[in-house]
Each structure stands twice: as C-alpha cells, then as structure tokens.
Amino acid sequence: MPIRILPDTIASQIAAGEVVDRPASVVKELLENAIDAGAQQIDIEVMQAGRRLIQVTDDGSGIPADELVLAVCRHATSKLSTAEDLFNIRTLGFRGEALASIGSVSRLTLITNTRQNPFGAKLTVEGGAPAETQSIAAAGGTRVSVEDLFYNLPARLKFLKSDTTENRHITGLVTRYALAYPHIRWSITQDEKPIFRTTGSGERFEILQALFGPTEAGKLMPLDFEERHLKVEGYFSSLSLTRSNRKDITVFVNGRWVQDPVLTSAVIRAYNTMLMVGRYPVAVLFITIPPELVDVNVHPAKAEVRFRDQDAVFSGVQRAIRRGLLAFTPIPDLNTTRLWGRSLPETAGPSWQQSGFIGADDTNEAAREGELGTGSEFETAQPQPTLPGSHLPLLRLVGQVASTYLIAEGPDGLYLIDQHAAHERVLFDQLMAQFNANAIPSQALLDPVVVELTPEKAGILEQQLEALLNLGFEIEPFGPNAFVIRSVPIVVERTDPRLAIEAVVNAFEEDETPLMAEVEARVAARVCKRMAVKAGQILSEEEQRNLLLNLESSQSPRTCPHGRPTMIHLSVNLLERQFGRTGAI
Fold first, then answer.
1. Domains of the chain
2. What is the arithmetic mean of pLDDT over 200-207?
C-alpha cells in the first residue's frame, strides 16, 4: 500500500482521540478554559451522560468576536508565544487543541461576549468545519455546547461505558476541581437533576463536608508544609478513615489535577506500618512548585507531569504527611484485658487492631473490613449425614483459637476454620436461597438510617437500588446524595446497615459492568462480607457450634463467596508424619 497524507478530517479525528476519549474529557478541557478565563461561576449541564449534550457556562473574560473562528483551529492559543514559554506554564491550557478536537467529533456551539461589546458572537462547528460567526445578544462570558458527541465516530461511541459510569467520571472531575478552586461557584446538573453545588466562599473544608459528609470530613486533618521550592497543602485522613483502593487520593500540581503514580505512592508510603495491608488513605493535596521545575507537556490530556527533581518532591510529600500523622495521631492505649487466660470483650474496638493483638494475614480482617462486630446470631441448621466429595463430614467442635479460628475434629483429621470466611459463606447461602425462592424476609427499622455519600458514590448506589430491593433492603433517596434505609433482610438485621451499603458502593466503584444476572449475587456477596463476624471476635460455644452446623449444610463449604478458603484440613496421616509415628519426618 503506497504512503499518502491523510485527509484533514481523519487527521483531526485521530488527534482528537488523544484529547477526547470520553465525555469527562470534554468537561475537563472546557472547565479548564473557564478557569483560565478568570471565571467566578461555572455551570455544567449534562444530558444522557454527555452523549446528547455537554454545556459549560462561565462568566469569564470571553473571546473577542474576530478571534472566534481562530479559537477552534488546531494549535491556536493565547497562552504561548515562544518555545521558552513551555517551561514556564502558569495556565491549565496551553496546547491549543481542546476546542478543535471537540469540534471535530461533535456538533459544537460557542456563544461568547467580552463585556466590552454590547453584542456577543455565536459560532457553530460540525465535524471540524466552522460556520460563519453570527452577532447575538449574550451576557459576559462563554457558553460552550457540545451535542451528539462522537456522532461521526460510532466505533468510539460503542466503547463508552454505562450512563452511570460516565456520569460518575464527570461528577468526580468537577468535585475535584471544586476543591482546588473553592472561590469559584460550581454547579453540575445531570439530566436536569442538580447533583452538586458550591457557594464560592473559598472555604475548602465546606466542600469537603459536602462531598464526604460531616463525619468523614471530621476525620480529615489539615496539612500546610513548605520547604525550599516545595509547598504542600490540603487534607489527609486519620488512621480511622481508609478505603479499599487508591481512588480517594487526589493530587493537584500548580492547580492541575494529575494522576501521577509517584505522588500517589508518596502518600501511601507516608502511612507505612500504620495501615493494614489492602487499606489506603484519603488525601486531597495541592502541591505548588515553580513552573520551571515541572514539565506539564508530557501528555496530550495534560494528566501527567514530570519533575526536574522527582526524588525531592516524593520525599517532601511523604515527609509532610508523616509529620502530620505523628502530630495528630495519638498513641493507642494498651487494652490489658486481652491477655492469655482472659477473654476479649465483645465490644472490642479499633484499639485492638492498632495495638497489634489481632494477628497477621487474614486475622487482620477486622481492620480491613472496619470495626469489629458487636455480636452474632446463627440460625441452627440440622446435622446431616457425611457427604462425599467437596462437602464436609460431620465435625466435632474442639474450640476457638486466637479469637479467629475454630478447631474441629472430623473422621479424617483436624479442621482449622476461619470464622469470618465461614460465616460469610453461611450468610451468602442463606440470602441467595431466599432470593431464589422469592422469599427474603425483611425487618423494618424502628429508626430509619440515613446514609450520606459523595456525588460519585451516590450515583453508584442509585444504580443498585433495584438489586438491593430484591435482596430485602428498602432504600429511598433522601435529598442530594443521601439515602434513607427503612428495612433490611433479617439475615443481617443485627448489624449496622450502613456497613452493607458502603460495601455495595465499594464493590461497584471500580469500572466494572457485570451481567445483570450476576448483580444480585455480587451485591449479596459484598453485603455478607461486611456483615459476617470478624477476626478477633470471641464467639460463645453455642455460636461456634451453630456456625459449624450451618457450614456442614453448605453446598460450597470450602470457600467464601469471593473464593478465599474457609478452612485448612490436617489429615491424620499428616499429623502422624509430623509426630514421627510413620518413620522419618
């Protein structure tokens, strides 16, 4: 095939793919332009997750009418003039590609006014081809409307995720920039439904409370650190506020949101030896560094940066958070009631996790899953005859060790059973059996429980309300980003329903799209994981015995719903070899 130059339309669409890969990318480019224009109010309206409409309105400086056509041309910008300016960038935009890229894959309309003129200007762009500029009455500022995104790239349109996922990316982007620029009045509306709004008061903690709720925001500690050329401000979480992933670690560099693995690693390393394996902190950091010491021209979407002295930035961020942790985190008291020969109170709290008495590996399940449960009740199952294959034989309870494992004797040796994984399996089997029989009994709560979530997580929960209803939960929206729990399935009625809801949100926070037939099972698995008794929780002899009986009745007793083993089998032959009864060990 001969070499040839691509037509301008194809070249534009290829270039646009580097900048605009989903609706959130469009919102990012437009709101960064609004910030650069000095806007004090930015309103974002989204329809059908951005496929139908993305509209960003600001009250910034606007674009002169005679420069409007030039503004939608590729590599046209007012923010650079020489090559040296690339190493002293003080604006969010500078490449001159955003409007051109957006216009090549959508139907773009710009209405703008610079305030000095009595009339504004309007320009439409379709598939990269601009029409003539029209004079129009318009307020000061700019309104950019992006309609039918990817209408001329159906293949790209098919790669977009569900509306909930795309809306979540947009909401997450806007809320992060609201934290970085608290003096701006932000609002976002999705399908004519208000999602998020700020007052523009400049109080960053006010926005944190709106995003995380008063309880979680109260666990975020302020940070103000400065040394040489590096300044780190923001908030970081105490040891009692953690997540199961890194998504709530947000870093801005010179006002620009970046996804930098080095900076994220610096935050995590600051918590080294303080958090359990698999748990991550919450942090919102704003790093200020002289522009000549950072290169932002390394990614078309400006999502990555490079530092002239990366090690200095890494160590500075780590040191700043570590100092704050040592200053704000008290030394946990040693609970002396749990010594050998004494029992742990059933209301044991996080001090046990911090003092190290709850052991390693999965004995830290209590720390990874949250606070220890305050009690457990098991429905008694009838014993059954010995079952072949993967089923358990009849077991005789011996006792509990380390407040985590049950020891049982079977006809073929000893069984060490993880009480959390086993109870998780029992609860899951009970809940799914009731679900398959369309007979899940629910218990109405005497006092309905209100759950407040971030706008992103509220969208996730709203999508799963039907699955939760099918599993016996009655949950209703209760204002912006809030839900009220009125009923729960009886199988989990003795625990805090908030934990179940948090588990569901965390399970679907990753960008996953399971088959609809699997949704209830996934939700049930996460709920049961949260509701099951935890490592470090002492069970009465009756509770231990009932747990064994229920596990014997399970069709898959050897693993929890997530695939983790529930038990270890020590056969009689193994014991005899270990004790030298069959010759050499």
1. 8-201 (3.30.565.10), 205-328 (3.30.230.10), 418-570 (3.30.1370.100)
2. 92
